[in-house]
Amino acid sequence: MGQVCLEREEEAACVIMCASVKYNIRGPALIPRMKSKHRIYYITLFSIVLLGLIATGMFQFWPHSIESSSDWSVEKRSVRDVPVVRLPADSPIPERGDLSCRMHTCFDVYRCGFNPKNKIKVYIYSLKKYVDDFGVPVSNTISREYNELLTAISDSDYYTDDISRACLFVPSIDVLNQNTLRIKETAQALAQLSRWDRGTNHLLFNMLPGGPPDYNTALDVPRDRALLAGGGFSTWTYRQGYDVSIPVYSPLSAEVDLPEKGPGPRRYFLLSSQMAVHPEYREDLEALQARHGEAVLVLDKCTNLSEGVLSVRRRCHKHQVFDYPQVLQEATFCVVLRGARLGQAVLSDVLRAGCVPVVIADSYVLPFSEVLDWKRASVVVPEEKMSEAYSILQSIPQRQIEEMQRQARWFWEAYFQSIKAIALATLQIINDRIYPYAALSYEEWNDPPTVKRGSVSNPLFLPLIPPQSQGFTAIVLTYDRVESLFRVITEVSKVPSLSKLLVVWNNQNKNPPEDSLWPKIRVPLKVVRTAENKLSNRFFPYDEIETEAVLAIDDDIIMLTSDELQFGYEVWREFPDRLVGYPGRLHLWDHEMNKWKYESEWTNEVSMVLTGAAFYHKYFNYLYTYKMPGDIKNWVDAHMNCEDIAMNFLVANVTGKAVIKVTPRKKFKCPECTAIDGLSLDQTHMVERSECINKFASVFGTMPLKVVEHRADPVLYKDDFPEKLKSFPNIGSL
Amino acid sequence: MQSWRGKSLWLALSASWLLVLLRVFPLLRLAVPARPWTSAPQGWPRWLDTELLPSFSQPGELPEDAPQPPQAPRGGGCDWGACFDASKCRTGGLKVFVHPVAGPVSAAHRKILASIESSRYHTASPEEACLLLFLSLEVPAGECSPVPQQWNGGRNHLVLDLHPAPCPQTFQRGRAMVAKASPTVDTFRPGFDVALPLLPEAHPLRGGAPGQLRQHSPHPGVPLLALAEERGGWRTAGTDPSACPWDGRCEQDRGPEQTHPGGTLPNATFCLIPGHRPDALHFLQALQAGCIPVLLSPRWELPFSEVIDWTKAAIVADERLPFQVLAALQEMPLTRVLALRQQTQFLWDAYFSSVEKVMHTTLEIIQDRIFGASAHASLLWNSPPGALLALPTFSTSPSDFPFYHLQRGSRPVGRFSALIWVGAPGQPPLKLIQAVAGSQNCAQILVLWSSEKPPPSRWPETAVPLTVMDGQRKVSDRFFPHRAISTDAILSLDGHSSVTTSEVDFAFLVWQSFPERMVGFLTWNHFWDEAQGGWGYTAERANEFSMVLTSAAFYHRYYHTLFTHSLPKALRTLADEAPTCVDILMNFLVAAVTKLPPIKVPYGKQHFEATPPLVPGGPEPQPTARDCINQMAAGFGYMPLVSSRLRLDPVLFKDPVSVLRKKYRSLEKP
């Protein structure tokens, strides 16, 4: 009885152990052969291991809740309960900010060391409450926005909890608003941070600098070498390439729901919505209004409303009441005038409304100006030219205004709309400085998503005609048709500009012919053996390819004349960023089936060339092998078809340009190609090819192929001119 | 007994196992890699009372700010708004006056003066000028050249300071802007000063050596790195990062290397330039060679950094992290390497290859500051053909230019305007008008009447609007940006030209694929004439061509603006004096912009023979015309024309297939 029981257990243990690959130690097959005395120990052992396993499993899954519940009690603390730090009155104060600081003088890059991901590591000091000798707090412990900012950093890829690995330190001492803190004591609090070291690699965030009466444009707290992300820098206080100019966050961004309004002409041409405007400027604005009437609207505080929170959301002109910020959407241009401080939260509201900001604040360093191109989204008017603002704006064409409106809205969405966006953009800017070779480009920072989608940046954009002397490398993909291969080699070697011939031997079961059997040609001939019979081997970026021009040619293309190939190479030189081939093909939209169709009829249009013989830049081999989108490469290898269509898609997509068909050649006279003349094989062939086009178009998410109606011929082709004087007299026929 | 022993053994075993388990388990747990619950509490805590936290600014607080009246700039420095009075420039445009130089001038200075005088912004009267340029002369170190009269505290002055020897008073030049060769970031005032490249003495006045890049991608055999040497040459090194090639400390373990004597250009993918001052010359050499400059010091303000996006062409790294920089260079994706290489070449050709380009770029930057909103967009500065050739006065929208359609995802709009120039004989080109008006792509016909005879009062009825404009009797008037031209494409025609509707249709279709080039029917070819020691050109039919005749050609209307506003006046005068020159000049201009040949499309044979006036002066051009091409080449400083060996035909052109299949069958009629 007991025996049976044990055996059952054994089975159970076996099942479990076999299922777990990790713990599969040899298996139960050994057990029956042993003596029953030893057997019992083994059984015991197994059962204990089993127990252990179960226990492990329980620990794996249970502790989750157990521990997180204990964490929960630790983590979900109240801000009021944070540790209190007493600052003696005589504790050290950092030096004032050093105006000559630059990244290469004041920043310690060694802390950022080698980093494979090219991402800086940011450490956040834990929150403390600082009090002076009398127990009076130095500042508000933390504001909602600063808490949000630190949370955003903590949730980002930049964050590290290991202070010794950090490259940038963010104090939890909140200095967003200088008015809420005691300057000297805050500085003392900074100085006692554990890694302060004269502020090296420390980053402070401040949006409202300065205080009455003279309102400095940078935070007055002495901070030595610390970097300052400040919202209101002037060119006098901003340390170019060291500080970061950030926006003043507008709380309305989160409070008010404002649906996007597209660009276009709006009711008011110019609007001023600020409440605190110096009387002198208000006079100027009102003079503008008087001169241009309805087109200009100058709003002010509402005096007749009862005071309350709502007054922030109301603006008045005479007795008319307007909702703010909704009214901003009624204007094309909105004035952003300096107050006592240069940085104004209204800039954020204005951008959000898709109103083009007219910045009137001399020497103001606009937010993120290190990376953002504000010329595309704003107009800067010098303060003394305020009276001319209207005519300056009038000279901007409508198309440009709409572009600016779109750009303004995009800036808000990407960099202004939340504290998180502001924090991450700031860190990205510092990251770009430290890892310049991995920095975001101008386009990545500035182009709205719609522009990014529509634009093509040709990887071979420089207009350049490569020298003829360079020549081209012919790549012949072959399996076992040695006889025809040798003929192709002999024919191609007659082309004057051939500089090397590369045979890609795609047959793993058979060795290529011996060296002595190959045709003797005037250029180097190399044979590359492949590991697998794949079509994509044709487009592999072999190290043996030394020229930029590549001629891909099948092992049965023998009808192309030497003149035809040489001319093809000459055409490639004039269009080095395109596929230059002989027979052209076309894709068509089949309205009945609602999908793309492959076409090889006698058409007047061309959108693809066959790569049975085609010239192209070797860079496209690299792209085909390593950057082909989606699963296209594997799909082609699996179907053993359409590698040429894939190449056509790839090149057209990346360059935005059409192929060049050369000479009249319409088909290759080879066994496979006879199929296109309307035999039964033709039907399946066409269906397969059409399928390829549809498949690729869906992977690319668009139809990149471009249709053209021209082909390239020699200048004097079929002209009434003595044949012997023509450069390429022997251009083949169809 | 046995069973008792067995049981006790059992128990002991299980107890020990349990013990082992208990001991091992915590270790096991440690071995489990970073579970979310082990790292989460380390982050910034989620406070219980987040909702109760005060906002950083109270709603009432902002309006409490006491707004301040305008104030004088603080800090003693200058910026554009505070120290430059742009009002004069806005009314009269940017006009530059150069203070006469007292004393001997060096050859380098003469070149600078000449290049400014050739600029369209130059003026001879200081009253008219809104920018006064002052050339700081070479003086003993530590001194500064004396300030000129009308100094006015330096207001609206630009001081050209081309000497590495620092003038201690640079900062006391008051409100003058300083254009200085490779300034340091410490003394540079962004948006006010201009950073210049350090030009070698022998830098050519105009034209200049073209970039050395002959192919887009680096040749496989080329070394990865070249290092600028103190003595002025370059040393190429292999890819071994352990050779730390920039401080000489590990000189002995460097691999194969070569030292190039001073003056030659480096042949490598990346050019490492340490941060010492004379290396500023290396920077230009690297650009010219198409070698990606890697500056190992962020201390220098790069030339024209206000407008040029150097992140696209160079790498500014920190020499304090050598291994990281080398690793980054080695692992840089091929796509980025290609883009950087090409950008170096484009920048060299567009802004640095001659003194003239450098000086014109400087003035263009100042012009852009004055323009404000209608200045060059960043795209215009940083992609071919560059801001000197893309005039913002043409349009502020990049899609209006022929160069940026790819980047903008746009296409050239609409149809074409036929611009027919009627010269001396004054015969109204009725047949031509009918042929052109027959094209469904024709939007309008403009007749530019430049004959002494008055134009006829009656014109044929056409499907498209026909406007007759009075020409100025000058040949260059053909390329004036007439307001009446409403389309991107212009079909330029001569009163004598003869084209068929389908020829026009096909040529227009081809032009739409190449909007930045000229697409024409009749061609000329240029050649170097050894016997005469100069350039020549021929109208004979040949296997190559480099010019298309503007008596029947499509091109973008932007070239009219460029022809009229950017070409030196001397060249346009030359074209007016010898009418065949105007074709050459237009072809020079377009080739200088595109660096590509024009495009030829098929042209019926019968016209070719029937219209001798199309080929001015018969097959052999007259002597004046021959002079013309050489004078143009001198004016440009180099020969911009590029030859092509191909013609673009319809896909089924003259193929032995049924005529019914062919869309452009009338092109084939003998």
UniProtKB/TrEMBL annotation, chain A:
<comment type="subunit">
    <text>Part of the heparan sulfate polymerase, a dimeric complex composed of EXT1 and EXT2. Could also form homooligomeric complexes. Interacts with NDST1. Interacts with GALNT5.</text>
</comment>
<dbReference type="InterPro" id="IPR040911">
    <property type="entry name" value="Exostosin_GT47"/>
</dbReference>
<dbReference type="GO" id="GO:0015020">
    <property type="term" value="F:glucuronosyltransferase activity"/>
</dbReference>
<keyword id="KW-0333">Golgi apparatus</keyword>
<dbReference type="GO" id="GO:0050508">
    <property type="term" value="F:glucuronosyl-N-acetylglucosaminyl-proteoglycan 4-alpha-N-acetylglucosaminyltransferase activity"/>
</dbReference>
<keyword id="KW-1015">Disulfide bond</keyword>
<keyword id="KW-1133">Transmembrane helix</keyword>
<dbReference type="InterPro" id="IPR029044">
    <property type="entry name" value="Nucleotide-diphossugar_trans"/>
</dbReference>
<feature type="domain" description="Glycosyl transferase 64">
    <location>
        <begin position="472"/>
        <end position="717"/>
    </location>
</feature>
<dbReference type="InterPro" id="IPR004263">
    <property type="entry name" value="Exostosin"/>
</dbReference>
<keyword id="KW-0328">Glycosyltransferase</keyword>
<dbReference type="GO" id="GO:0046872">
    <property type="term" value="F:metal ion binding"/>
</dbReference>
<dbReference type="Pfam" id="PF03016">
    <property type="entry name" value="Exostosin_GT47"/>
</dbReference>
<keyword id="KW-0256">Endoplasmic reticulum</keyword>
<comment type="pathway">
    <text>Protein modification; protein glycosylation.</text>
</comment>
<dbReference type="InterPro" id="IPR015338">
    <property type="entry name" value="GT64_dom"/>
</dbReference>
<comment type="similarity">
    <text>Belongs to the glycosyltransferase 47 family.</text>
</comment>
<feature type="transmembrane region" description="Helical">
    <location>
        <begin position="40"/>
        <end position="62"/>
    </location>
</feature>
<keyword id="KW-0464">Manganese</keyword>
<keyword id="KW-0472">Membrane</keyword>
<dbReference type="Pfam" id="PF09258">
    <property type="entry name" value="Glyco_transf_64"/>
</dbReference>
<dbReference type="GO" id="GO:0015012">
    <property type="term" value="P:heparan sulfate proteoglycan biosynthetic process"/>
</dbReference>
UniProtKB/TrEMBL annotation, chain B:
<comment type="similarity">
    <text>Belongs to the glycosyltransferase 47 family.</text>
</comment>
<keyword id="KW-0325">Glycoprotein</keyword>
<dbReference type="GO" id="GO:0015012">
    <property type="term" value="P:heparan sulfate proteoglycan biosynthetic process"/>
</dbReference>
<feature type="domain" description="Glycosyl transferase 64">
    <location>
        <begin position="416"/>
        <end position="653"/>
    </location>
</feature>
<dbReference type="InterPro" id="IPR004263">
    <property type="entry name" value="Exostosin"/>
</dbReference>
<dbReference type="Pfam" id="PF09258">
    <property type="entry name" value="Glyco_transf_64"/>
</dbReference>
<keyword id="KW-0812">Transmembrane</keyword>
<keyword id="KW-0256">Endoplasmic reticulum</keyword>
<feature type="domain" description="Exostosin GT47">
    <location>
        <begin position="103"/>
        <end position="331"/>
    </location>
</feature>
<keyword id="KW-0735">Signal-anchor</keyword>
<keyword id="KW-0808">Transferase</keyword>
<comment type="function">
    <text>Glycosyltransferase required for the biosynthesis of heparan-sulfate (HS). Transfers N-acetyl-alpha-D-glucosamine to the nascent HS chain (GlcNAcT-II activity). Appears to lack GlcNAcT I and GlcAT-II activities.</text>
</comment>
<dbReference type="Pfam" id="PF03016">
    <property type="entry name" value="Exostosin_GT47"/>
</dbReference>
<keyword id="KW-1015">Disulfide bond</keyword>
<dbReference type="InterPro" id="IPR029044">
    <property type="entry name" value="Nucleotide-diphossugar_trans"/>
</dbReference>
<dbReference type="InterPro" id="IPR015338">
    <property type="entry name" value="GT64_dom"/>
</dbReference>
<keyword id="KW-0472">Membrane</keyword>
<dbReference type="InterPro" id="IPR040911">
    <property type="entry name" value="Exostosin_GT47"/>
</dbReference>
<keyword id="KW-1133">Transmembrane helix</keyword>
<comment type="pathway">
    <text>Protein modification; protein glycosylation.</text>
</comment>
<dbReference type="GO" id="GO:0050508">
    <property type="term" value="F:glucuronosyl-N-acetylglucosaminyl-proteoglycan 4-alpha-N-acetylglucosaminyltransferase activity"/>
</dbReference>
<protein>
    <recommendedName>
        <fullName>Exostosin-like 1</fullName>
        <ecNumber>2.4.1.224</ecNumber>
    </recommendedName>
</protein>
